[in-house]
Amino acid sequence: MRYQISGKQIDIGEALQTHVKTELDEILGKYAGRPTEASVTFSKSGHEFVSEAIVHLSTGLTVQAKGQQHEIYSAFDAATEKMDKQLRRYKRRLKDHHKERSQPVELSDAGSYILAAREESDEAEQTEDAPVIIAEMESKIPSISVGEAVMQMELSHAPVVVFRNEKHNRVNVVYRRDDGNIGWIDPKS
């Protein structure tokens, strides 16, 4: 597994890097058989340290957790506790998907754009219909089942997941509704 351990405007020592690798190996060894990449970022927010951990699994799923504490090791431990809880909750489903899938998850390329909000004071620009694009990126759309998409959304704490439904190969969307339930959009053509 590849590790990317970094700090935003703080130094990360060898002891902390060793601690991160050891803890992630232990947690991921219990639940996820094939993690491919882990990215851990440490930063400081006021008087607290913040640790963000993102782990990509070979099944195409991404597990994400964040912890805040007064000490840097405690912040990482808080993040790993959350990750451990997420993986424990989905352990049975993670193992079932490993058995059913003989091929790795297929990913399709897609464009992703961030649109700028309009200023009320800009009267000349308000007459135009097209918003201004401020960022353009490449995204990957996985080919997975609806259950896996819901699990991906909950593991990564994302409000929405766009995926290609592996049953009929059409683009679908799952999202978290305002009432706390999960919505699924499946266009017919």
Description of the structure:
- The chain is an alpha+beta fold.
- The protein has two domains: 97 residues, Ribosome hibernation promotion factor-like (Double Stranded RNA Binding Domain); 81 residues, 2-Layer Sandwich (SHC Adaptor Protein).
- The strands form two sheets. The chain has a five-stranded mixed beta sheet with strand order 5-6-7-8-9, covered by helices on one side.
- Strand 8 and strand 9 form a beta hairpin.
- Its main location: cytoplasm.
- This is Ribosome hibernation promoting factor.
- One of its GO terms (molecular function) is ribosomal small subunit binding.
List keywords for this structure.
9 strands; 5 helices; Ribosom_S30AE_C; SHC Adaptor Protein; 189 residues; ribonucleoprotein; Double Stranded RNA Binding Domain
How are the secondary structure elements laid out?
Layout: E1 2-7, H1 14-31, E2 35-45, E3 48-57, E4 62-69, H2 72-89, H3 91-100, E5 106-115, H4 123-126, E6 133-144, H5 146-156, E7 160-165, E8 171-176, E9 182-185
Helix pairs in contact: 1-2
In short:
The protein is α+β, with helices and mostly antiparallel strands and 189 residues long. The chain has helices at residues 14-31, 72-89, 91-100, 123-126, 146-156; strands at residues 2-7, 35-45, 48-57, 62-69, 106-115, 133-144, 160-165, 171-176, 182-185.
